[in-house]
Every structure is written in structure tokens, then in C-alpha cells.
Amino acid sequence: MDKQLSGRTNITAMSTLTFLFFSFGFVTTMNNILIPYMQTLFSLSDTQSMLINMVWYGAYGIGSIPSSIVTEKFGYKRGMLLGLCICACGGFLYYPAALMVSYPFFLTATFVLALGITLLQVAANPFVVEVGPHRTTAMRMNIVGTASSTARMIAPLIGSLLFLGTIKQIVPDGTVEISEAQRSSLANMLQMPYISIGIAFLIVALVIALIKLPAIQHNTQAEGTIAEAWRHRHLRYGVLAIFVYEGIEIAIPSFMVRYATDSSILGVETTTAAKFITLYFMAMLVGRFTGIFVMKRATDRKALSWYATAGIVLVAFGLLAKGPIAIGALILSGLCQSVMWGNIFGLATKDLDYLTNKATSLMLTAIAGGGIITVAMGAIADYFGVKWALAIMIPLYIYMIWFALSAERLRGADQED
User: What pTM was estimated for this model as a whole?
Assistant: First the structure.
């Protein structure tokens, strides 16, 4: 099939891809609901509950480069089909995990699901470019990006209804230690939603197997190696910036329920606190749209430093204030996170030319920062309180400012070498 399609987009393929990106956002954001749910189910500490983020984002760190190899060797369509089947397996593994009431088993299921999502993202992005004419590529990327952002706003609301509301029904007195019968009931509530997710992924796999997608030729000429790309200092520090950025972006939704339910901050119910996660991702979506106008008037260097500075102010305000004002400040920090990825990517890959593909694989690997940093924050929360855990975001923002202001100098030093 010719990708131009007489100047038209393949609607069936584009609709399927849009659903896929919606699924990416939905399943990823459900983790923010799973964290407080698992904390109640297994009486976990903050560190232990953040292992959900560790295995999820760790899958990106482990699976990004192998996923690229798979798509290069077997093709992007087969890569998508394999990714969908792995996602389905991850969803189905929640059933025996619930029967065994085993947190390690749940973490294993989550890791398998995340590996599938990693492969899907590596394989699906090129198809968004290829299913229609080049002149509307940006529009198609915006459509799938909006679908993912919409899912991230919806997921906390649905997760709250399915899971957090259930906690109050099964454990009405809110006790920390729950009975085995209550534990079993809470675990079983996870079965049908994730089995449904697994079935949905298999249906999409069947649709993709049946529809025609454009052939994507992988050009291996003059591509370079990962080692060659890693020699560039501005890329190395850019990879670290992505690592740090993921920790910043994931920290607020991961700790939002914990922070908002704290009686010294706001003291709301968990179901209400989950709605604040939706508002956070809504702020990110608004930030993406407003960021279009900012980027027309500012370089990546200026925009990243401006947004990181604003993030410091908002997070500091959220930690020093109390009540709705504190929560509102943290929600608004989503505006700052909204365009950072693009700014970092632009600064880190500038002038890499044929090495950009390998640089992208390295940056995807750095998504593991979302898991590693939040686990470290969980440990801080266990010993010093959740406020001190969130305060770690401030030095992370400072690194982002340093990278924004230093990337050009680092790139210049590479060229001199």
C-alpha cells in the first residue's frame, strides 16, 4: 500500500493507532491508582508501593534498545503484534496474581505489561508518520498525542471508581491491618479490569493483523552505533536530563493521593484525591497547547530554563502552603512538565544527524528514571515524611536549568574535540 494513498490518510489504520496511544496513556496512568490500592492491599510502605513505578519504568530502561532491535529485524508491524500479545499476557497475569494475593506476582504482571507497551511505542510511532501524506504528519502526531493525554485524564477517574471506592466498601473502618478475607476481596477486584485490558489488546492485535499498513524500510546505512552517539557530551547530559525529567513528571501523580489525604495538608478521601491526578494531567494537556505559542517565541534553551524555574516556584509553594492552595500549586506544576521532553530532546540531539536514531534509543532507556527516582522518594517519605520526598523535585529542577544553560557549551566542546 502506498503511504500517500492518493493524498489521503488510511482511516482504519489511523483509528487503530489512535486507540493504541489512548491505551498507552490509560494503562500507564492507572499505576497512580494502583499505588495507593496496593499500599492498602498489602500494607506497604511508601518505598514498597513505589516498586510499581520501578518495574513499569524499569521496563523502558531494559526493553527500549531490544525493542529497536526486534523492529529492525522482524519489521514494525510484527513488532506491534508481538507487543500487543505481550501486553495481553501482562493483563492476564493479574488473574493468578490476585488468586495468590502476591505482591511480587503483581509486580511481575506489571513488568510484562510494561515491556509490551515499550515495544508497542517503539513500533507504533513510525506508522503514525507513514499512514498518510507527509503534509499532515504533524496533525496525526497531535491526534495520537491528544488521545494519550485524554486517557491520562480519564484513567484516574475510572481507577478511582473501580478500585479506591472499593477500598471503602471492603474496609469501611479504614484500618491499617486488614483481614485475609478483606485482602482476598481487594485482590480479586483487580482481575476483571485487567483481563478486559488483555482482551482489548488481543482484539487490536487481530485488527492490525488484518489491515494493511505501509511498509517501513529501515535504513541501516550510515546509522552509527550507540557507543558513537554516547561520545557526545550534550547527549550524555541530555539522557540524564530525561532521567531526571521522568522522576519530576511521575512524582506528583504518584504521591498525590498520599499527600492530599494527609490530614496536615488537606485530609480528603482517596477518591477525591484521585481527581487531583486528573487535574494534573489536564494541566499538562493545557501546557502542551500553550507551549506551542511559547516555542514560537523562545528557543529550547530558554523555554526549558523558564519552565524549570516556574516548576521550582510552584513545588516550593505546594510544600510550604496548606489546604487547597498547596494542592493547586502542585497541580499547576503540570504546566511546567508539559513541554520539557521536547525541549530536552531538541537540545540533546542537536547536530547528531545520522546518530539521532541511536540517541533516541538511549533517551528512551532513561525513562527508567521515573521508577528509580520515585522509589528513592518513597524511602525519604518513609523516614522523613512525604513533604521531604516531594522536596527532592527542587534540586532535580535545578539540574534541568543547568542543562538548558549548558547544552550549547557542551555541544561546542564536542565539536572542538
Answer: 0.89
